[in-house]
């Protein structure tokens, strides 16, 4: 059987049974839940913890929970976290060392127990983000062994989007609200006069076995039609979009654009955008020791190109200005990422727009760069540096 084409329908009781089956199988189930005024990702003991009846209102620099009358569990946009918080944690120990009896250090590599994760509610944009991080952290010449271990055992249950948020722009990055590949099961939530249910598609043998373990019925044409129609409708109603231009060429031709000065006047270089981004992966390492000096540890933690020390060399930081650091982030994300990893680094989830305290909108900045590029080509745009200085 072609498992990628197998379909079924489960109801709310079936969803509860699905979570229970995963927990009984010894998996750590992670999914959306309401906490601290937001829909966040956390470990779920049962389906009761899902955000039934909650949605969100989004805009640049704005996020609000709002109640829903239909009791939907997944009718909300991406929250402040992404799945990289579990696959590529913010901080993890690399090794520890102690002073031996003869004073020689004895090193021990960190081998933490890795949970068998089941991620429930993975959005299509985040499926793409996980695939990007797979290329960056699990492949290439220098794979991250910790990421490889966590990723190897992770089961992915996607949830297709039927109500894109005001800051979503996945379609213009080459994605969309439909889950295409990379999932074990894909759910599409349907709430109408015929009840609350989920159209299910199987994407792997593991997903097929999981579905067989929970109550379900064959997919009926009405549920499938409503589900697919809602996803198609979502595709046509993105809250944001990138301009339809060659982004690689645009960013490469905009290194001296005046617009960088405008965004630098607003950017706080706080690194919120890189922290919430599902594809940003940069890390640094630090050593810590106890007061005796007999024990030390090396830890890996997230880093950001917005950090002044990120490009620090013996003579100081390479990118000292906020202008150069924002330019580095956006140019890498949309252009030079292709040269390194074979694709863009943005999946259009909109988190960087929503969680920027200065309400800086990536799509607005790219549109402004495109307009300036066109004006410059026509001889109408001012130069970026009136004093003629170049900036790294």
Features:
392 residues, alpha+beta, 2 domains, 8-stranded mixed β-sheet, 4-stranded antiparallel β-sheet, 31% helix, disordered C terminus
Describe it for me?
The chain is α+β, with helices and mostly antiparallel strands. It has two domains: 3-235, no CATH class; 247-377, no CATH class. The chain is 31% helix and 24% strand. It is built from twelve helices and 16 strands. The chain has helices at 12-24, 84-87, 124-138, 145-152, 205-212, 221-235, 247-252, 259-264, 272-276, 322-341, 351-354, 362-377; strands spanning 7-11, 28-35, 38-43, 54-59, 62-67, 91-99, 105-109, 117-122, 155-159, 185-192, 195-202, 217-218, 283-289, 295-302, 312-313, 316-317. It has an eight-stranded mixed beta sheet with strand order 3-2-8-9-10-11-1-12, sandwiched between helices. Strands 7-6-14-13 form a four-stranded antiparallel beta sheet, with no helix packed on it. Strands 4-5 form a two-stranded antiparallel sheet. Strand 13 (283-289) and strand 14 (295-302) form a beta hairpin. The longest helix is centred in the C-terminal third of the chain and has 20 residues, at 322-341.
Task: Give me a quick take on this structure.
The protein is of the alpha+beta class.
Radius of gyration, in angstroms, nearest whole number: 23 Å
Structural class comes to: alpha+beta
Q: Helical proportion?
A: 25-40%
Low-confidence stretches: 384-390
Helical run tally: 12
The run of helices and strands is EHEEEEHEEEHHEEEHEHHHHEEEEHHH
**Total strand count, please?**
16
Which shape, going by the Cα principal axes? globular
Oligomerization state of this entry? Answer: single chain
Side by side, the strands of the main sheet go 3-2-8-9-10-11-1-12
Mean pLDDT score, rounded? 93
Q: Kindly report how far apart the N and C termini lie.
A: 56 Å
> Could you say how many structural domains there are in total?
2
Which range does the strand content fall in?
15-25%
Largest sheet: 8 strands, mixed
């Amino acid at each position: 059987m072609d498992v990628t084409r197998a379909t079924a329908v489960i109801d709310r009781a079936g969803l509860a049974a699905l979570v229970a089956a995963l927990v009984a199988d010894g998996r750590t189930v992670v999914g959306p839940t309401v906490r601290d005024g937001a829909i966040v990702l956390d470990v779920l003991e049962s389906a009761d913890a899902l955000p039934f009846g909650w949605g969100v209102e989004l805009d640049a620099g704005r996020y609000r929970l709002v109640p829903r009358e239909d009791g939907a569990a997944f009718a909300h946009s991406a929250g402040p976290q992404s799945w990289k918080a579990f696959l590529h944690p913010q901080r993890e120990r690399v090794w520890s060392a102690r002073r031996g009896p003869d004073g020689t250090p004895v090193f021990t590599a960190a081998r933490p127990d890795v949970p068998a994760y089941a991620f429930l509610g993975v959005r299509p944009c985040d499926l793409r983000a996980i695939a990007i991080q797979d290329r960056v952290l699990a492949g290439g010449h220098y794979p991250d062994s910790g990421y490889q271990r966590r990723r190897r055992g992770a089961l992915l249950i996607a949830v297709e989007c039927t109500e894109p948020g005001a800051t979503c722009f996945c379609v213009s990055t080459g994605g969309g609200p439909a889950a295409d590949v990379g999932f074990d099961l894909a759910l599409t939530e349907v709430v109408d006069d015929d009840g609350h249910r989920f159209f299910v598609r199987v994407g792997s043998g593991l997903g097929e076995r999981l579905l067989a373990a929970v109550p379900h019925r064959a997919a009926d044409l009405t549920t499938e039609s409503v589900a697919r129609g809602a996803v198609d409708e979502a595709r046509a109603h993105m809250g944001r979009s990138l301009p339809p231009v060659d982004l690689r060429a645009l960013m490469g031709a905009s290194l001296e654009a005046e617009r960088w000065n405008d965004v630098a006047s607003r950017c706080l270089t706080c690194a919120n955008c890189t922290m919430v981004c599902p594809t940003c992966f940069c890390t640094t390492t630090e050593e810590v020791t106890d007061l005796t000096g007999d024990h030390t540890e090396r830890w890996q933690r997230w880093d950001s190109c917005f950090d002044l020390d990120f490009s620090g060399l013996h003579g100081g930081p390479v990118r000292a200005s906020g202008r150069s650091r924002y330019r580095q982030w956006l140019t890498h994300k949309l252009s030079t990422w292709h040269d390194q990893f074979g694709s863009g680094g943005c999946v259009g989830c909109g988190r960087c727009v929503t969680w920027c305290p200065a309400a800086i909108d990536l799509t607005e900045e790219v549109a402004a760069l495109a307009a300036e590029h066109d004006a410059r080509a026509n001889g109408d745009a001012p130069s970026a540096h009136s004093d003629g200085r170049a900036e790294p």
